Structure to design on (558 residues):
């Protein structure tokens, strides 16, 4: 039986203490925390793990420089709370998943000396607030040093820059690793399992959920003593499914990012653009061999299709180009993504960019559902800790210590910065592939490469010029519940982020390998490939780029 089928069998047959709805960062963290505290826990995700908001981040684990400015100028305690909490949690993310995270230095260019002073003072406060969680002190860099580190920067009027450190992480893989860690501790998780209704006891309290298996088209029931709603931007749909009279709380906002070739801005450091025309900050961050630029801010509804538009591309490039010696044109965009931030607010709080990224835990007195809303990726673990504290109160059990603060995640045991060298020597894979595998799977990369014992061709690349190998497709299907071409290319190996056009070229071959693992027929495989290519072409067209036809690939040609 495949891993997903086995999970479903275990879920249907058991009574659980806690059912977590939502397999994004917060839901996965809640499930892991609960399971480690001895609560038998099940996690249900309507789509793929990290399939929405949690794979659409700027990939930065940070306190938030903008929050510091708003906290000081507006004397805003909410912004201050978000900032300090995130600064402390940022270090835990770095320590708990060393294979998926790294320290990254950010440069804030300045073209006026007064700005240098302003930034230097602000970032010294940022360092001070981090306390023992400080990564490295901020510092001033001269014009010469700034230009050396960012040679493509606009030199006209440049006075220097202020540099500071934050963290960077692989959001999709981090999320999936949380799920794997949860499963390794005895928890049960399944994707493509949509909650459609609740089971209720005689006093109308919720005692479980009704679930639709979206892949098999079957219905099943999960029994649980407590239910946690961790569905991010769509939290209101679950809240109102439990208690229709509840008012909506969510005010999601769209954040869009684009990716560019690194040669448009060659650097090992990140660029922070301190102020846009609408009062935001933008980042240009090295990521997976690309330059990741984002993000926008636009209030949306949970039903909106969230894509990078031509207007998003123009907005991001307009601000980026002000800092470049040679402007970037839209045709340089190789991929992008857009997602919804799960902001909590009320109708009278103004623009979403002014809403604090704080989280809210709501206990519904009518149904008993506990909803964790708002927050940000960096604080996902702390949000989960608070939520499971509330769960234990609701269950009437003694509150036990949270164990996730220093819990090494799956693939992190034995990992060192030079682990890729050992992997390369032991298995004979190239440096590029070894680095890629170690950064995606940590020490579990050995399990991926070991699949070559079944078929030596599995260590061959999925696509020429990209470091991912065929074994990753097989491993992701068998061990990580990858069930679609998009699951593989967007979230398991990252090729879709590297290049939409390369993802189209790889789709037929990925479909063939998935078909072997999942038992798809020839017609099902053809439909899956065609649908994926149509989706990526839709992304290209919406972003104002030319669509692309797929290469005619076959197993024989590969």
């Amino acid at each position: 039986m495949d891993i997903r089928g086995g999970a479903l069998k275990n879920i249907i047959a058991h009574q659980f203490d806690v059912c977590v709805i939502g397999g994004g960062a917060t839901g996965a963290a809640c499930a892991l925390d609960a399971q480690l505290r001895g609560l038998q826990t099940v996690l249900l995700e309507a789509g793929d793990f990290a399939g929405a908001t949690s794979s659409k981040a700027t990939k930065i684990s940070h306190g938030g420089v903008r929050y510091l400015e708003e906290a000081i100028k507006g004397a805003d305690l909410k912004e201050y709370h978000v900032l300090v909490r995130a600064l402390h949690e940022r270090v835990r993310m770095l320590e708990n998943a060393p294979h998926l995270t790294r320290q990254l230095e950010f440069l804030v260019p300045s073209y006026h000396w007064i700005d240098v002073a302003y930034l230097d003072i602000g970032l010294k406060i940022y360092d001070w607030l981090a306390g023992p969680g400080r990564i490295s002190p901020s510092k001033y860099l001269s014009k010469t040093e700034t230009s050396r580190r960012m040679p493509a920067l606009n030199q006209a009027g440049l006075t220097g820059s202020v540099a500071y450190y934050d963290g960077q992480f692989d959001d999709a893989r981090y999320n999936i690793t949380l799920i794997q860690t949860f499963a390794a501790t005895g928890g049960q998780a399944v994707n493509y399992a949509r909650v459609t209704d609740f089971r209720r006891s005689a006093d109308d309290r919720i005692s479980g959920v009704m679930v639709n298996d979206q892949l098999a088209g079957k219905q099943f029931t999960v029994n649980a003593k407590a239910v946690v709603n961790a569905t991010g931007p769509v939290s209101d749909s679950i809240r109102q499914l439990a208690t229709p009279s509840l008012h909506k709380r969510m005010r999601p906002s769209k954040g869009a990012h684009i990716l560019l070739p690194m040669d448009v801005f060659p650097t090992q450091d990140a660029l922070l653009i301190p102020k846009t025309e609408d009062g935001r900050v933008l980042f240009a961050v090295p990521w997976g061999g690309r330059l990741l630029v984002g993000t926008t801010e636009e209030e949306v509804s949970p039903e909106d299709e969230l894509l990078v538009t031509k207007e998003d591309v123009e907005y991001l490039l307009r601000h980026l180009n002000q800092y470049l010696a040679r402007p970037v044109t839209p045709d340089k965009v190789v991929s992008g993504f857009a997602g919804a931030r799960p902001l909590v607010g009320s109708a009278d709080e103004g623009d979403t960019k002014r809403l604090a990224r704080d989280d809210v835990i709501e206990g519904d007195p009518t149904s008993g559902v506990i909803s964790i809303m708002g927050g940000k990726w960096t604080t996902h673990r702390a949000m989960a800790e608070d939520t499971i504290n509330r769960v234990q109160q609701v269950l009437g059990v003694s509150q036990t210590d949270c164990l996730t603060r220093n819990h090494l995640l799956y693939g992190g045991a034995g990992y060192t910065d030079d682990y890729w060298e050992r992997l390369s020597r032991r298995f004979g894979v190239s440096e590029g592939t070894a680095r890629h595998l170690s950064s995606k799977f940590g020490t579990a990369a050995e399990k991926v490469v070991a699949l070559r014992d079944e078929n030596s061709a599995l260590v061959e690349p999925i696509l020429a010029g990209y470091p991912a190998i065929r074994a990753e497709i097989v491993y992701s299907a068998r061990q990580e519940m990858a069930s679609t071409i998009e699951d593989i290319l967007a979230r398991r190996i990252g090729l879709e982020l590297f290049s939409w056009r390369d993802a189209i070229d790889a789709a037929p071959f990925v479909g063939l390998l998935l078909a072997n693992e999942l038992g798809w027929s020839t017609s099902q495989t053809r439909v899956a490939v065609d649908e994926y290519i149509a989706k990526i072409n839709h992304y290209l067209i919406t972003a104002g780029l030319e669509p692309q036809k797929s290469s005619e690939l076959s197993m024989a040609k590969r």
User: Anything to note?
Assistant: The radius of gyration is 23 Å.
